[in-house]
């Protein structure tokens, strides 16, 4: 595998070198006439007559008046503007044409010596009432594109999205890795913030997974990978932002779709069904979507622990099997935008998600001083039920304050989340040294209820200073109130409260933020954006059960700097720097003890500190498609899972703590390759070196106060992802996604290598109104999670398979009628990832 990786890296470097040498040979269109001999100019703007929005990509033909002789052609830019330069004096006509709009001609435009610069002004195009016949395009569009500040992964219409969840496609994005607990890494780095339509999800990793698994991937338009966000974004997220953009209504009139899916992991069966409907007429643009799913999951694993006790090594070997089923009332999203006039619009949206999950987790454990002759057998049967509810509500305003691009926007959000769970733990102990001793039973019960209320408001102002400079500023305030009441009981002879494992935790947090950015150009080659964001955090965590109160108040500045250099038309370089923060999620601050088995616990850490990151990067773009990114990150006070060992009692207590620091150096290369006419590929190679530093005592236990030893956990990591889009005969689309990931590190753990292959087929019928899709994930059952750590002479290893191999079949019917129009984008939020 290492040899193949070296060969692929060599080929990649050769290709990028060749492209760099070839960039100077790019071609450009010649002007109609030289500016020295013919100084005339014709320019203007095109807008939609109904919405007054600028029209992009409109074809503009310049003709000699009274003839069909073409003098040139162009298309309008994002502001609807066009221009013809270097024209001789004379009379001309202009013709404007665009699919879905009526063709329009301006018959006389005259250039004279007295008036060489002619401004036609604004021309409005009216929508066409004619229904155009569908044009079949056999070429495959790219699924990964590089924009100025992000990478965009197209999801809409892909075969791999059919029948899958939003969680599935997120985990398949370039450079993304998701572990068994839902924690996300990007380019080998943890601390990723997940947003939806530019808004924070405000969820813990497990709750975020629940929400994303309840959302059909077919509702997703694309995923934006923002490795280095600007100051306009919240500073939360040390490894960057993954923004999931849902499909927006772009059709005047009525359109939508309905779908149904069956899927299986060959142990359980699941389904999903739902649809969406959009309606745009006049000044109103409204949508509604609904999804109903039964999601399934299984896992099996082996866990090995060795405790270096005074009386000798204690061996703990465990096998585990689990399954879960998640089902609930339909998840829905509804929203509307209203254009007050051509300058001001308001809107609102709401979403609701409720589901109930049933989890069975069965473990068999053997423990003793001799691995071959264990002394104790423990059978632990855990059964959990949890009802999850979340509602997200937003109202927003957007205004254009003048004709030069000054805008003002505002958002207010209210999010409410609740979990109502209960667990039964049935433990059976068998003494293997004396067969005559009866099996001992120990039954436990837990009632775990928690909830979050989140309020957030923000306002953003953008002011162009001139044609090349822009000024932005904004402010945001948010408040989070959390109440967690977890009660633990002995259940051998009726319920008896266990005060040592019962806890009531109340958390209150306020964050106040403001930012300013300034962007400008220096000549035709350099664009610069500098920004500064300030965030003030005030929080109180109170545990009435333990009589503990933890208050915090801190203020931080987060500068950003971006420089874009245009070396040539085929080669651009971007330089960036940013400072960011990752705050603890609210559950990790809760000191409640979460029971896993008699010898395994998880607990929160009220003393957990946020981690801070300094990041610098260079991004090179060749021919707009080939991307090479180099990054360096230094992270202080890294938050990581830490296993604390009660060696004499052979018990492991997991918590989240701060290790000293992390240094990361990474290279990511994206190379789209067209193998043949109907076979496109997108290939992503990530090379990363991670080095974690933490402190231990002489016995190997973690301790940052009385340390005697500085320990380094480091690893070089490679990850190669290759996505193939193949157009087969009869209009069948085949997609294959393959990836290989080498060994890595995460905090104290060594992470084993893995690889996987996914494939999907898609065929359309009824003039592409009906889509049939079939997909298979993890074809070779190779997506296994292996984590190992050694602390002193103590060993903690586990190996899990989460039954990623699945088969799914989906039918989706689409209906639409109307014309394409421009759609407003929603704004952003930031606290939900931490619940």
UniProtKB/TrEMBL annotation:
Please list which residues make up the signal peptide: 1-24
Stretches assigned to the Outer membrane protein beta-barrel domain: 400-813
List, alphabetically, the SUPFAM superfamilies matched.
Carboxypeptidase regulatory domain-like (SSF49464), Porins (SSF56935)
- Cellular component, GO annotation: cell outer membrane
Alphabetized UniProt keyword annotations: Cell outer membrane, Membrane, Receptor, Signal
Q: Which residues form a coiled coil?
A: none
Enumerate the InterPro entries for this protein: Beta-barrel_TonB_sf, CarboxyPept-like_regulatory, OMP_b-brl_3, Plug_dom_sf
Annotated localization? Cell outer membrane
Under which name does UniProt file this protein? TonB-dependent receptor
């Amino acid at each position: 595998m290492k040899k193949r990786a070296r060969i692929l890296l060599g080929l990649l470097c050769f290709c990028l070198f060749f492209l760099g040498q070839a960039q100077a040979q790019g071609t450009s269109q010649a002007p109609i006439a030289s500016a020295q001999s013919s100084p005339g100019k014709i320019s203007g703007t095109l807008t939609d007559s109904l919405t007054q929005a600028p029209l992009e990509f409109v074809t503009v033909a310049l003709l000699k008046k009274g003839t069909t002789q073409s003098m040139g052609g162009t298309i309008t830019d994002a502001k609807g503007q066009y221009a013809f330069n270097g024209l001789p004096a004379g009379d001309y006509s202009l013709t404007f044409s665009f699919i879905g709009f009526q063709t329009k001609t301006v018959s006389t435009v005259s250039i004279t010596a007295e008036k060489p610069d002619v401004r036609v002004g604004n021309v409005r195009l009216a929508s066409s009432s004619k229904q155009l016949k569908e044009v079949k395009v056999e070429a495959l569009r790219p699924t990964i594109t590089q924009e100025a500040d992000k990478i965009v992964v197209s999801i809409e219409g892909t075969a791999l999205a059919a029948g899958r969840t939003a969680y599935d496609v997120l985990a398949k994005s370039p450079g993304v890795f998701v572990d068994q607990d839902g924690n996300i890494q990007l380019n080998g780095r943890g601390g990723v913030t997940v947003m939806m339509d530019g808004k924070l999800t405000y969820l813990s990793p497990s709750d975020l997974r629940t929400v994303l698994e309840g959302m059909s991937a077919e509702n997703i338009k694309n995923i934006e990978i923002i490795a280095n966000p600007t100051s306009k974004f919240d500073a939360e997220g040390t490894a960057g932002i993954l923004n999931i953009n849902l499909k927006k209504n772009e059709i005047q009139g009525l359109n939508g779709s309905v779908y149904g899916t069956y899927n299986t992991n060959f142990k359980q069966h699941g389904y999903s069904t739902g649809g969406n409907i959009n309606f745009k007429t006049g000044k109103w643009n409204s949508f509604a979507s609904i999804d109903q799913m039964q999601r399934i999951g299984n896992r099996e694993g082996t866990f090995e622990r060795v405790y270096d006790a005074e009386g000798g090594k204690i061996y703990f070997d465990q096998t585990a099997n689990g399954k879960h089923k998640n089902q609930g009332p339909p998840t829905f999203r509804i929203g509307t935008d209203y254009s007050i006039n051509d300058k001001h619009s308001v809107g609102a949206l709401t979403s609701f998600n409720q589901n109930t999950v049933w989890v069975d987790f069965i473990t068999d454990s053997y423990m003793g001083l001799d691995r071959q002759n264990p002394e104790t057998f423990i059978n632990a049967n855990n059964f959990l039920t949890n009802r999850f509810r979340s509602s997200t509500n937003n109202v927003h305003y957007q205004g254009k304050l003048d004709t030069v691009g000054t805008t003002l926007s505002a958002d207010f959000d209210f999010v409410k989340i609740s979990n109502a769970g209960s667990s039964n733990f049935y433990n059976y102990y068998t003494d293997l040294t004396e067969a005559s001793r009866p099996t001992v039973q120990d039954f436990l019960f837990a009632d775990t209820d928690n909830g979050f209320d989140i309020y957030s408001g923000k306002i953003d102002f953008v002011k162009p200073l001139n044609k090349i400079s822009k000024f932005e500023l904004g402010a945001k305030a948010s408040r989070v109130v959390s109440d967690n009441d977890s009660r633990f009981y002995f259940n051998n002879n009726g319920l008896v409260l266990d005060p040592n494992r019962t806890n009531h935790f109340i958390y209150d947090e306020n964050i106040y933020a403001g930012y300013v950015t300034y962007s400008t150009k220096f000549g035709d080659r350099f664009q610069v954006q500098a920004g500064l964001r300030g965030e003030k955090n005030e929080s109180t965590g109170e545990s009435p059960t333990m009589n503990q109160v933890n208050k915090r108040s801190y203020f931080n500045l987060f500068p950003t700097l971006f420089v874009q250099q245009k070396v040539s038309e085929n080669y651009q370089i971007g330089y960036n720097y940013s400072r960011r923060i990752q705050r603890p999620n609210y559950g990790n601050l809760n000191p409640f003890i979460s029971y896993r088995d008699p010898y395994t616990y998880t607990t929160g850490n009220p003393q957990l500190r946020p981690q801070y990151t300094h990041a610098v990067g260079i991004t090179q773009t060749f021919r707009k498609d080939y991307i090479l990114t180099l990054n360096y990150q230094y992270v202080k006070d890294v938050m990581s899972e830490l296993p604390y060992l009660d060696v004499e009692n052979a018990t492991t207590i997991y918590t989240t703590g701060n290790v000293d620091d992390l240094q990361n150096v990474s290279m990511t290369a994206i190379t789209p390759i067209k193998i043949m006419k109907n076979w496109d590929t997108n290939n992503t190679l990530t090379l990363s070196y991670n080095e974690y530093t933490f402190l231990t005592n002489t016995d190997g236990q973690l301790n940052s106060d009385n340390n005697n030893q500085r320990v380094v956990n480091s690893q070089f990591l490679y990850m190669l992802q290759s996505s193939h889009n193949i157009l087969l005969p009869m209009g069948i689309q085949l997609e294959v996604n393959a990836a290989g990931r080498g060994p890595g590190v995460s905090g104290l753990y060594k992470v084993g290598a893995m690889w996987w292959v996914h494939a999907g087929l898609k065929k359309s019928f009824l003039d592409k109104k009906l889509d049939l899709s079939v997909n298979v994930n993890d074809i070779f059952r190779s997506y296994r999670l292996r984590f190992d750590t050694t602390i002193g002479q103590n060993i903690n290893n586990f190996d899990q398979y989460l039954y990623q191999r699945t088969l799914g079949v989906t039918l989706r019917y689409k209906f639409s009628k109307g014309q394409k129009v421009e759609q407003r984008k929603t704004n952003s939020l930031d606290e939900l990832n931490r619940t």
